[in-house]
Amino acid sequence: MAAMMRLEAGRDPLNRELTALIGELSTRSRRFRADWAGHDVHEHRSGVKCFRHPEVGVIEVAFDVFEMPGEAGLQIVTYSAPPGTDSAEKFPLLASWAATGRGRGGTARRARGRALP
User: Fold this and answer.
1) Contact 4/42 with Cβ under 8 angstroms?
2) Which of 42, 56, 59, 112 could form a cystine bridge with 3, CB 3.0-4.6 A?
3) How far is residue 116's CA from residue 93's CA, in Å, rounded to a whole number?
4) At CB < 8 A and 24+ separation, what contacts does 96-102 make?
5) Tens of pLDDT along 23-71?
């Protein structure tokens, strides 16, 4: 995480919110301090992300980042879950809830996913 934050800090060194976050993480996390001191810079172009949905639980998706030629800073990010996995089976359920505006138990809900560290 520190390597990705260092990359973003280099892109936008006057970003006060990012600077404040880096400062806070540095004071609270020994691991972050060590990683930050390593001066590594890294950009994730592909990998796996995990999200915790409040009703269906953990959803794992693969992601790929594609740069748009001729459009500096513009990216397309794709997410996919391999067919037959637990995560893939959760998407039709979430889609049906989104289409009807209903959550589990018949009550109207607004689904909010949260990325896991």
Assistant:
1) yes
2) 42
3) 21
4) none
5) 998 899 998 888 878 876 656 678 888 899 998 999 999 988 887 788 7
